[in-house]
């Protein structure tokens, strides 16, 4: 009995031990299964959130493509797709909201996600309404305003933030699952050993638990593979992980594309190799990891280096990964190449500075983000006083209220109404004074959304002019209507303010179709550019240069046909400033006659030598009597000045001036008749010495004008030194004479033209020449300016042309008004020189 009792006791003890072992093993197995199940559930939950976010983004993109398709085609099928996509988006948004209810960070972004989705749908409704009520053009204009793109960009940014948060949680949950799995392995091994020692019955439990463990590991491997495929599918971002020491642990396809390294080349290497050497020396890689570890996240923009050594400007986000106990597991980095955006910003800043008007760029919060020097001058602020400030500080009424702070309509609605039209508002300078302005608005797409670019012009003078426009029209209309030619009056903005009946007939427009329009609509080339829209001189200065000469241009009738015209310009002073009155004559018939005249020029050229000989003899025979007239008139002026009445002094002065100009004309005619005709043998000469001789002759002119004349090393050529001195003297003298407001600067150089000819150039910074006059200036007695502005006879360049052509070369010019001129002439290479 005792033995049985002891045996029973042992069995009971063994059974109790087995039961206890089974209980311990069961509890451990349950924890392992629960942990694996929970890990699988969490991972599956994260993938479900990511999937729903992607579905929501796809639904919003479908909404956008549907209303765009309806705007372009008007087909109702797009509306069906649009409504279905709205329903789908609403369902996906609700699902995302429910799935992330346990994540405070995601819940913070949910309202923003809903608001942006509603804003996108509201914009789509407006596009559809515009298409149905107004038509395709209005809807297309609204689409092109960029509002939908901005809303979509913001929506994508929020989705991307939620996506990044789920990826971060996935990394943390994956690490936590691995830790639980390791702990479970240890306990299971101990439980298995214990179960083998105490009873065979525990083997069944171990076997069952092993099966569950295998299932959990398989699920974990599947989730890891899904995560890897998801990360590798991202091409536009470099996404990789780092261990706590900054060693690369994983590498996606986007990282390989952007940085140039393959995974097997970079995994296990320190991420500092992506930094510039100067940044490495300053310890920036380690510093950014410390910032991310301390704050959870670090975001910077700086230069990064690719495998091939090339640099790119990158946006970099480093996020620290920790387990539930707070232990640092490593880091994840997401970076993207934004070099193109930086380059675009730099180019856009250069365009702003080149603009003649004040330019201000404003963001959606009504804050100034960019401005140019003209804006600083116009509003009397320093740049750093305006950047980041509200635009209402300088445009207190109208701009901010109508385009940015209007609660009844969006920025896009306001832009759609205002873009392309000048808005007249009031600007306010730093000292508080107000002045009238005109603003031209245009949208500017950027990574921050749609910005508003405003070109601002001070219209104080124009506003004052408008007050007197009615009086002026009544005052001058009678004179204009009496003129036999077409008469057009243009203001300083290039706008037609008055015209007569002849102008209506000549150009085929009604009066109301032209008044207020740009003159370039009827005179597309020449008039507007040279007299009105030339930013380097005023209309008055341009008119002063052209008055009294007929300008041959092209006119354009209402239906596009062009015809030759001649314009006589005259200034018209008015309370609005200097206006330009243009008498326009149709010279179609005259041009036909000129063509006939050209055909007879060949015959006239045959007698050119005889005419030159006549000019020489006639001018030579005129010198002696003219010298006597000049001497006596100068004697009268010297002896009787002040002793006669004022009229007599004036008449004598006219006689002295006339005889002096006649002497100059005869001397130029003699020079012209002699130029290039002497039979002096050609010899090798130094063109540098020839230039110095010409400058010696111009010494007084150079000193009087403070001109700076420089030259490069000049070659030796086979030519006529006397004739070449005259060419240099005429070209340098003209460069100094036709000066601009700047001190004259003349530079002479020479280059070899393909081993054949020497090409000499005389460059200046003077008034410049309109290209239409390039041939005219080399014709005898042709002048582009009045004698009261610049003295001369119009023979100098003709002499140069004649000499150069007799020496076997040619002469030409390159120039633009107000940008200086370059006169070229060529001399042939002779005797192998």
Compute the number of helices: 28
Largest sheet, if any? 5 strands, antiparallel
Helix content: 55-70%
Main structural class: alpha+beta
**N-to-C CA distance:** 141 Å
Oligomer: single chain
Work out the strand percent: 15-25%
Unreliable spans? 404-409, 415-420, 532-537, 542-548
| Rg from alpha-carbon coordinates | 44 Å
What coarse outline follows from CA principal-axis ratios? Answer: elongated
> What is the typical, i.e. mean, pLDDT?
77
Number of strands: 22
How are the strands of the biggest sheet laid out side by side?
A: 2-1-5-4-3
Structure description:
This protein is α+β, with helices and mostly antiparallel strands and about 850 residues long. About 55% of the residues lie in helices and about 20% in strands. The chain contains 28 helices and 22 strands. Strands 2-1-5-4-3 form a five-stranded antiparallel beta sheet, sandwiched between helices. A hairpin with a 2-residue loop joins strand 14 and strand 15. Helix 3 packs antiparallel against helix 4 and helix 27 packs antiparallel against helix 28. It is elongated and about 160 Å long. The protein starts with a helix and ends in a 5-residue tail after the last strand. About 30% of the residues are buried. About 5% of the residues have low confidence.
């Amino acid at each position: 009995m005792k033995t049985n009792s002891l045996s029973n006791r042992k069995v009971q003890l063994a059974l109790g031990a087995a039961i206890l072992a089974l209980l311990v093993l069961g509890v451990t197995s349950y924890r392992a299964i629960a942990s694996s199940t929970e890990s699988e559930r969490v991972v599956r939950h994260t993938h479900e959130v990511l999937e729903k976010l992607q579905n929501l983004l796809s639904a919003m993109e479908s909404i956008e493509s549907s209303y765009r398709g309806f705007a372009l085609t008007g087909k109702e099928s797009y509306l069906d797709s649009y409504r279905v996509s709205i329903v789908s988006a609403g369902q996906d948004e609700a699902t995302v909201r429910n799935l992330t209810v346990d994540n405070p960070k995601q819940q913070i972004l949910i309202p923003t996600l809903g608001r942006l989705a509603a804003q996108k749908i509201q914009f789509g409704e407006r596009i559809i309404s515009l298409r149905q009520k107004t038509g395709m053009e209005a809807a297309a204009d609204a689409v092109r305003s960029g509002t939908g793109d901005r809303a979509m960009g913001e929506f994508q940014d929020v989705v991307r933030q939620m996506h990044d948060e789920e990826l971060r949680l996935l990394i943390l949950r994956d690490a936590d699952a691995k830790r639980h799995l390791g702990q479970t392995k240890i306990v299971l091994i101990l439980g298995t050993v214990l179960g083998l020692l105490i009873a065979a019955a525990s083997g069944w439990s171990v076997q069952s638990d092993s099966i569950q463990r295998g299932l959990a590991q398989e699920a974990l491997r599947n989730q890891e593979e899904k995560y890897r495929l998801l990360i590798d599918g991202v091409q536009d971002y470099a996404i990789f992980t780092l261990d706590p020491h900054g060693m690369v642990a994983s590498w996606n396809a986007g990282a390989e594309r952007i940085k140039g390294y393959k995974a097997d080349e970079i995994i296990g290497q320190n991420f500092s190799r992506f930094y510039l050497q100067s940044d490495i020396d300053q310890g920036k890689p380690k510093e950014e990891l410390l910032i991310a570890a301390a704050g959870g996240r670090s975001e910077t923009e700086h230069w990064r280096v690719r495998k091939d050594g090339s640099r790119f400007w990158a946006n970099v986000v480093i996020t620290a990964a920790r387990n539930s106990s707070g232990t640092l597991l490593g880091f994840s980095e997401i970076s993207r190449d934004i070099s193109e955006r930086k380059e675009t910003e730099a180019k856009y800043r250069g365009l702003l500075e080149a603009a003649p008007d004040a330019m201000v760029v404003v963001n959606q919060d009504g804050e100034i983000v960019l401005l140019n020097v003209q804006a600083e001058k116009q509003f009397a602020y320093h740049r750093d006083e305006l950047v980041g400030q509200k635009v209402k500080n300088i445009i207190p009424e109208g701009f901010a209220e109508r385009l940015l702070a209007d609660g009844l309509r969006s920025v896009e609605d306001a832009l759609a109404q205002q873009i392309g039209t000048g808005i007249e508002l009031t600007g306010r300078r730093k000292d508080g004074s107000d002045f009238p302005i005109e603003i031209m608005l245009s949208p500017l797409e950027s990574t921050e959304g749609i910005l508003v670019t405003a070109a601002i012009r001070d219209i104080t003078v124009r506003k004052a002019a408008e007050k007197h426009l009615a009086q002026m029209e009544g005052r001058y209309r009678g004179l204009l209507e009496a003129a036999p030619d077409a008469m057009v009056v243009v203001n300083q903005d290039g706008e037609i303010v008055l015209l007569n009946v002849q102008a209506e007939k000549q150009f085929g427009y009604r009066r109301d179709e032209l008044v207020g329009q740009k003159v370039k609509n009827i005179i597309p080339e020449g008039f507007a550019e040279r007299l009105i829209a030339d930013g380097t001189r005023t209309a008055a200065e341009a008119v002063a240069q052209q008055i009294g000469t007929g300008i041959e241009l092209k006119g354009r009738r209402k239906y596009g046909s062009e015809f030759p015209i001649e314009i006589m310009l005259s200034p018209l002073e008015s309370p609005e400033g200097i206006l330009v009155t243009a008498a326009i004559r149709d010279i179609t018939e005259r041009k036909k006659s000129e063509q006939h005249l050209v055909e007879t020029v060949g015959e006239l050229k045959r007698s050119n030598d005889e005419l030159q000989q006549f000019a020489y003899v006639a001018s030579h025979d005129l010198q002696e009597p003219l010298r006597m007239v000049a001497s006596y008139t100068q004697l009268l002026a010297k002896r009787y000045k002040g002793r006669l009445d004022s009229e007599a002094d004036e008449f004598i002065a006219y006689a002295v001036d006339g005889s002096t100009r006649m002497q100059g004309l005869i001397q130029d005619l003699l020079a012209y008749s002699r130029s290039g005709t002497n039979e002096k043998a050609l010899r090798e000469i130094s063109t540098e010495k020839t230039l110095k001789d010409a400058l010696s002759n111009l010494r007084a002119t150079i000193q009087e004008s403070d001109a700076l004349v420089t030259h490069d090393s000049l070659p030796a050529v086979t030519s006529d030194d006397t004739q070449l001195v005259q060419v240099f003297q005429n070209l340098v003298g003209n460069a100094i004479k036709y000066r601009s407001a700047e001190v004259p600067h003349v530079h002479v150089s020479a280059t070899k033209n393909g081993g054949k000819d020497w090409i000499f150039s005389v460059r200046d910074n003077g008034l410049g020449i309109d290209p239409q006059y390039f041939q005219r200036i080399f014709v005898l007695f042709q002048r582009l300016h009045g004698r009261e502005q610049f003295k001369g006879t119009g023979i100098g360049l003709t002499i140069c042309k004649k000499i150069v052509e007799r020496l076997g070369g040619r002469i030409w010019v390159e120039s633009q008004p107000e940008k200086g001129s370059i006169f070229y002439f060529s001399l042939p290479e002779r005797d192998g020189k």
